Amino acid sequence: MPVTDSSVDAGFDWFSPEVCRDPQFYDGLIREAGPVVYSPQYDVWATGRHAQIELMMRDWKTFSSTRPPFEEIGQPMILLSDDPPDHQRVRTVISKGMSAAVLRRWQEDFEAAAEQLVLSLLDAPDGLIDGHTDLAKRYVLKVFPDAIGLGDSNREMLIKFGHAQFNMFGPKNDIYQASMEAAGEVFEWVGQNCKRDAVQPGGVCMAMYEAADAGAVTQEEAEILVRTLYSAGSDTTIYSLGNTLRALAENPAQYELLRSDIDEFATRAFEEGIRYDNPARFTRRRATMEVDVDGVTLPEDAKLLLLHMPAGRDSRRWENPATYDITRDVVGKHLGLGFGVHACVGARVARLEGVSLLSALARHVRSIGLAGEPEVTTNMAVHGHEKLPLHIVPA
């Protein structure tokens, strides 16, 4: 494969455990190595720069989501990764299931659940809680499965499923193998619980099957869309919340500002958290033709990783990018929830969850701070916490 002089190998294994536990640092090295960087080890290109990622997300004809790097042959396809026109057909179905009108119906329940959860933690011994387990994960695994109509109560399976699915986005290394070995029962559980007779009436999952009844998608596609909800609907929101909680704990002045005007700053705090420490390490693309990107020639069929974490801290786009600042004009301007035809279809749900929980926290907790060393997850495609020890002081 031709590699131009301006494409520089970053000089480390992009998918080693060390790198996967600190992608903000290592992917930042890739961002600074060049506008597009080539890995001979994986025959994959990557960019961590905001402008290049926005270009690639905007131009889906040149930078296709089909046949991406590390494609998992033989696994059920993710219909939302198709390019138009098929993409719009299935996206319309799932978007209708999570429309603005639907979210308005959910809002009261989401806010009430956030309020109840935060109040239940105010009497924690010595004010010590785990921001990942007690707050982010507990909240999302309550409201999201209820809303979509997951019938089974074993909701921890959603986390295990998402973890395995995201590790499929990388190479078949030791992380992948360990993830697959641990996921056998998970895939069996998903296979059973995404069937029509396993989901609850009135939820988003059943809406997928009702769309199939109306002819908008096939019955098989409806099941795949339910599977997609299970794989991508929990992990990234949980990690977004955890990463934002950590940012607020490490920046007490920003938390005080949030508490000073919750209506003004709750949305900004969550959106800035996504820019500052995005839970999605990358999305995947393929060049459909030879194309020049800022002096780097990508060959036809070049496999591409769009690195969202370093793009959120790209000094070419953001002033003081390594600073968490909830006054920043970031809403609708970061790329952390995707952009263009492949923007995150569940973004509005994630925002509702994030704003509801942060608002409840700010109302009832005077201060939060780290109470120990956080532990991050080891995953090739997502970034978040396994443990986030926090100390909270009730308001």
Q: Which geometry do the CA atoms define?
A: globular
What's the total count of β strands? Answer: 12
Biggest β-sheet: strands ordered side by side in the sheet? 1-2-8-5-3
Going by CATH, the architecture would be Orthogonal Bundle
Distance between the termini: 60 Å
Provide the number of structural domains: 1
The oligomeric status of these chains comes to: single chain
Question: Mind telling me the C-alpha Rg?
Answer: 21 Å
The CATH H-level homologous superfamily: Cytochrome P450
CATH class: Mainly Alpha
Task: Enumerate how many helices there are, as a single number.
Answer: 16
Helix percent band: 40-55%
Uncertain spans, ≥5 residues at pLDDT below 50? 1-6
Give your account of this protein's structure:
- The chain has 395 residues and is of the alpha+beta class.
- It has a single domain (17-394), classed as Cytochrome P450 (Cytochrome p450, Orthogonal Bundle).
- 49% of the residues lie in helices and 12% in strands.
- The chain contains 16 helices and 12 strands.
- It has helices spanning 17-21, 23-33, 50-58, 86-97, 100-121, 131-148, 156-167, 174-182, 184-193, 204-213, 219-232, 235-250, 252-260, 262-276, 308-311, 347-364; strands at 37-39, 44-47, 63-64, 128-130, 282-287, 291-293, 296-298, 303-307, 365-370, 375-376, 385-387, 389-394.
- The protein has a 5-stranded mixed β-sheet. Strands 4-12-9 form a 3-stranded antiparallel β-sheet.
- α5 (100-121) runs parallel beside α16 and α6 packs antiparallel against α12 (235-250).
- It is globular and about 60 Å long.
- Mean pLDDT is 90; it is low at 1-6.
